[in-house]
Amino acid sequence: MVSVDALDNPKERASYVITKIRYLVTAEDGGNDLKTDKKLRAAISAFQQTFKEIKTDKLVSYYACALNKGLIFFQGWMYISENYLSFYSYIFGFENKISVELKNIKSIEKVKTKGGSSDDGLSVETKSGSNFKFTNLFNRNEAYEVLLQ
What we know:
Elements: H1 10-29, H2 38-50, E1 59-69, E2 72-81, E3 84-91, E4 94-101, E5 105-113, E6 118-126, E7 131-135, H3 140-148
Antiparallel strand pairs: 1-2, 1-7, 2-3, 3-4, 5-6, 6-7
Helix pairs in contact: 1-3
């Protein structure tokens, strides 16, 4: 696990600390303080409606991103809950819905996207061999740290 001492970049250190604090506050108080935020409440509602089979799982964080399926990118939302990594997109009648239990994730890697010109991607490999590439993830480092916890 990464510690704050291992991070050289001040922005990465700040992002790491903020992510850690958010996680601890959510775990400690059941998320009551954070739920007052309108955007978070909307995300929790969308998560619970979309992923009914895991709606009791507590949402830790969420990120706008795109799922890369070959030449096609599906813009949507990545949801990270206590036990799952989920993604949902609905564009032009095409629905993409993914839910992977965190314990079934084999590896998570930061990747460059857009032909190697942008540091905004994550590659997630499951123990069963499935591979998911997420791009346009503007808070990639934060999402990465949350997933490692």
